[in-house]
Design goal:
Length: 477
Amino acid sequence: MQAKRCFHVPVLRLFCKVKMIRGILSQRVLSVRILRARHTNLGPSSMRAMHTSSAKSYNPADTGKSFSAVPTYEILRASAIFAACSRQWLIGPMVSILRAAENSLWGIPLLFAVKLVVFPHFCAGQTMEDCKNLKTRFTPMNVKLMVDHSIEERECESDWALNLKNKIKLLERCRDILGGGVTFVPVKITALASPSMLEEMTSLIESFPAHNKRLVDPRPMMSASSNALLERSVQNLSTLCAKARELNLPLLLDAEQSHRQPAIDYISSVLMRKYNVSDPPVVYNTYQMYMQNAEERITRDISLAEDLGYRFAGKVVRGAYQIAESERAKIMGKAYPLFNSKHDTDAAYDRAVALVLHTIAGAADKNVSPAIMIATHNATSVEAAVSAMERLHIARDDGRVNFGQIMGMCDHITCALGTGGYNASKLVLYGDFSEIFPWLVRRLDENRDLFGAVQEGRILLTSEAKRRILRLISWKN
């Protein structure tokens, strides 16, 4: 009798565990069904009008297709990382701990764990060969790469020369090693030009009340030394643009904070006039749609390009400096330059994308029409853009429209776009861990809201992991 009781207890415990696991899996299946329903019934009338062919071409809920080239261990790792980042109140303390760990003995084990788990999730690796391996893996899903090697801002002119040399080398290696598997290369202007000069230019530009409606040339108001510095900065960027045009590899100029962005708008327009006169355009300016003046600036820049006969090219993002902008506005006693709500930012983003897409569709000559990089991890914005392309009869593979997401973030969206025939790219960083670590921490700090947005992706990741495990079990049986 005692033996039977000893036997029954473990069996009962096992039975309970199985029941619990089945309950969890059932909840996950329900969550995925809800998510799939959201992708099917998009809500706004404009999105419900999506054509059937468009719905079939872009379906991120089809995890078997979207994650077909992603190893199971990477799916499990991604799910764990997003679970850890799902509690936004933890991100601030996490950032502080990571920054403190960088220069301390007690932080060595923590940094080792980050290098082992987090680094390979968000970065291609340490060499260009690692990028090549990633390109090979993404090729079956029709996803290409935007490759960057982390460079932070510099004020010293000798550093600009070195950064320019390294950036040109990066362009050459991208084309030589990755071939047609690379679509864009990001450029941080403050790594090639004086940040303080940009701030001086912005101050002069903003002295004109209508600067958001009409592009202001600050040079007549600048000193001789500042003009000379600007000329050398533009020359550095022109050298890079010439190499990019030679290699047919467009550049994405990174956005900056509001006290530098008007100067970057001016510099980008100077570069576009020279390098965006053929197909494809070489220079893309970046517009952060959480800024209250972003829509005006896009409208202004499209009109200016049409008037002067060059191609407008823009990368549209939501924004990455919300905390810094808030702190600066308080310190300087200036008006807060960003929208106060995410809803307003989302609406501005979708309007901006719609504006550029409508301008593209209405262009008489494809070779002089605008181009756009729709850089977002927001599923609703991607669905709206896909729907608009369908309504406007813009081909899925039209070179004037590209989509992009950061590696390790919303991979289901990128892969679904790629397999659906759209121009989809992943932003991948590579380099030594010690060089990349500050970038990782900065991304974590600047994109706190983003980790809330990727939780839908975590549900799909969990669903795909469950599907593979159940398939393995059924195969073994």
